[in-house]
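We read letters as residues; the fold follows as tokens. Both lines appear below.
***
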Amino acid sequence: MGQLDSNTFWAELSACEHFVQVYENDGAFLATLANFIHGGLARGDAAIVIATEAHREGLKALLTERGVDVSAYRRDHRYLALDAEETLARFMVNGWPDDDLFESVIQGVLRQARGMQGRNIVAFGEMVALLWARGDSGATVRLEYLWQQLCEKKLFQLFCAYPKIGFTEAPAESIARLCDLHSKVLAA
């Protein structure tokens, strides 16, 4: 697993890259996320953001500051912003991600973003961080695995992020375990 700093030239990532950032403050995290999403949109990719309302709004504000017409991208289905809790609820069964439901839900989102043009996709998912914060480490690891499998089949770049404050028990070991599930780790 390689380490990147947050100024990485996003276009140099492979078609299927699954990377993570463990962050200490929302400002730095949102700046990294804005760089990633803006870079994808600028290349002609579609962007999928599955995040909390606060992070969706923060990202939208940063993109707007950079001159991105988020509404236009939404109308063109090149920017899909979904609520993390609502999306998670669509495929969780008894506290565990259901493989078939996950694939159905997320593949539907991917199809919508790709459109008839078959656009490349950059995606951000915060559902794993929600599970982790609840103490559902097994479900978190399983969801990361499902994302990785889908990423390899459908070839898209996937960015995950976890707030460092969510690592309470043996934080160094927990962070290392989560980082091992990703192809790259972004500096906080």
Notes: The first strand starts at residue 2 and ends at 4. The longest helix spans residues 26-43. The domain at 2-186 is CATH 3.40.50.300 (Rossmann fold). The CA atoms of residues 18 and 148 lie 7 Å apart.
